[in-house]
């Protein structure tokens, strides 16, 4: 097959493809579309950006157009599942573009937006429903959606959908689908464990792999820079000051890491935005819109959120953190060098990530060239990047202090003082221990006080009783602190009560 007209697609679909500028199918499209039009299950593997969406969208639209049916309320005919909101929106846009001349309806549902609007959109029934698993289950539980009439199931980014993060939701969704259906699975990578699991959902599938599994894009120039963890942020800022880096996608391993990188870029005067699962839908849309129109030249993303970021003109991909799953590396660098363009992929690698680099090179069967640190790189920060503790200011309690002790004095900011043994208080409110006040002066505040006098033997009266000192004078003889006068009176009253006790007479 060399032209789309050779597939026997409906004329309205060919007209839409001509309007989109499509003439020759890509290898994944040329090998997949004939199987899909025959009604067979397909497991397709191809690099990111090779046209996998059209590979399953075109035969689906042709089948729906050839077998028109009245729409049933709350019941779609085709279900397409994807891991992210952005990818779901792009797939729905592709269906609408290819089927613009057909009387078919397409809806997309995902989390982060009001569910009531989605319920209204599904009430009259749709032909094609594109959804994320979580929101799909929410609609089913609210009885706003039925899957009993699904004719075709599509899993895009199947390796991610069949991973532990989605497998439980997917298993539940499959139980709600009719057994007599067509299933189409597509992905850029397919590890053996995921491939085995995928086969359990497919019936006699046609396996299509137009490139070796986990083969990276040929037009992507790859390199790795060995750098300490606490210098990654400085290295990123140094690279981004190069004007040739026009539009760059930065990958981090965690959501917190993405936000932290963006905060560092803002302080350096570099416009950047983060996109990950904790961001609301309006925030994600604003970040992507700014990245597309060029107002934001740096987009920081996590692996899952990056699935579906199809932005033209991405010149560089920077792996701020190397992925611990080597297949994710293929997806990451595939965000550049799209539509025949070239691109650069630079990876930062610290000592702990060298094992990840070996796994990537083993998977891709390529040795990633090493790039030296750029000249003029600023010195590393004094504190480690992982240590974010701030020293408490003088005269103020430490942030970790649990309260106050003594007479209104703050607790010591010294962490070693926090770990010291608790002081026991003896009779009369005097602390125990053998420590003596310095300079022979009575202790005050939260300082230590003199040890109590020995307790008299049973049956004997104490040699001295605490007497109330005249106002403005310190107690004499015992050297008892002024703060303990009232406790001394209490001890004296207790002795007087014991002398009047019948047992003591």
TrEMBL record:
Boundaries of every Helicase ATP-binding domain copy: 33-208
Protein name, entry field: DEAD-box ATP-dependent RNA helicase RhpA
Taxonomy, superkingdom: Bacteria
Motif Q motif positions after renumbering to this chain: 2-30
Protein species of origin: Microvirga lotononidis
Sequence ranges assigned to domain DEAD-box RNA helicase Q in this UniProt record: 2-30
UniProt record similarity statement: Belongs to the DEAD box helicase family.
One GO BP: ribosome assembly
The reaction(s) this protein catalyses: ATP + H2O = ADP + phosphate + H(+)
Residues in Helicase C-terminal domain copies: 219-379
Keywords: ATP-binding, Cytoplasm, Helicase, Hydrolase, Nucleotide-binding
Record's GO cellular component terms: cytosol
Alphabetical list of CDD domains matching this protein: DEADc (cd00268), SF2_C_DEAD (cd18787)
Compositionally biased intervals (Low complexity): 373-383, 433-479
PROSITE patterns noted in UniProt: HELICASE_ATP_BIND_1, HELICASE_CTER, Q_MOTIF
Gene Ontology molecular function: ATP binding; hydrolase activity; nucleic acid binding; RNA helicase activity
